[in-house]
Structure formats: C-alpha cells, structure tokens
Amino acid sequence: MNGVQTQSTIISYAWTQVFGTTVMLTGANTATPMFTAPTVTTATSLVFSLTVTDSTGAVSSPVTVTITVS
User: Fold this and answer.
1) pLDDT of residue 5 exceeding 60
2) Residue 18 near residue 61, CB atoms below 8 Å
3) What is the pLDDT of residue 1?
4) Between 10 and 16, whose confidence is greater?
5) 53 backbone φψ class: left, alpha, beta (φ>0; ψ -120 to 50)
6) Mean pLDDT of the chain
7) Which residues, other chains included, contact 57 with Cβ-Cβ below 8 Å and sequence gap of 6+?
8) pLDDT bracket for residue 49 (50, 70, 90)
9) In whole angstroms, how far apart are CA 21 and each of 9, 14, 31, 44?
10) Running DSSP on this structure, what letter comes out for residue 59?
11) Where are the chain's structural domains?
12) pLDDT above 90 for 3
C-alpha cells in the first residue's frame, strides 16, 4: 500500500481496516503501512481506508484499497 501524494505537503496519514479478517497494521500513520497476511483457505479480501491531512488542515475524502490474500 502506498499513500504518497506529491502535490501538497501531507502531515498525517490515517489507515484503518474496514473489511476482512482482522490484521494488525504496523505504521498505520505512515504512507506505507505493513501487515502480516493471515492464513486463509480461500481467497480473502482485506479492505483498508486512507485519509490524509495536509499542512493547511484539509482532510481528504477516504480512499479504499482492496488487497486479496490467497
């Protein structure tokens, strides 16, 4: 996952998991969080939401990212 944006100065990132087998996000307040994929027996979708705040205090609309673990 990568939440890097180059058009403005981002001061904070907020990744949250919104669907799927719960995983622990490491670095949920960074542009590139990580997690250990769960053990699954069938393809499983994990959905994450990202919002960012820039230096003016503007907060983005949430963007979702879907990762399929198989």
Assistant:
1) no
2) no
3) 63
4) 16
5) beta
6) 92
7) none
8) very high
9) 33, 19, 22, 8
10) B
11) 10-69
12) no
* Residue type, position 23, single letter: V
Residues 6 or more apart from 32 whose CB is under 8 A from it? 1, 2, 3, 4
- Sign of the Cα torsion 69, 19, 21, 48 reads positive
DSSP letter at 58 equals -
3-state secondary structure 10-47: EEEEEEEEEECCCCCCECCCCCCCECCCCCCCCCEEEE
How far is residue 6's CA from residue 40's CA, in Å, rounded to a whole number? 36
- Give percent above pLDDT 70 in the chain: 90
Burial class (CB in 10 A: 0-12, 13-18, 19+), 49: middle
CB count within 10 Å of CB 18 equals: 12
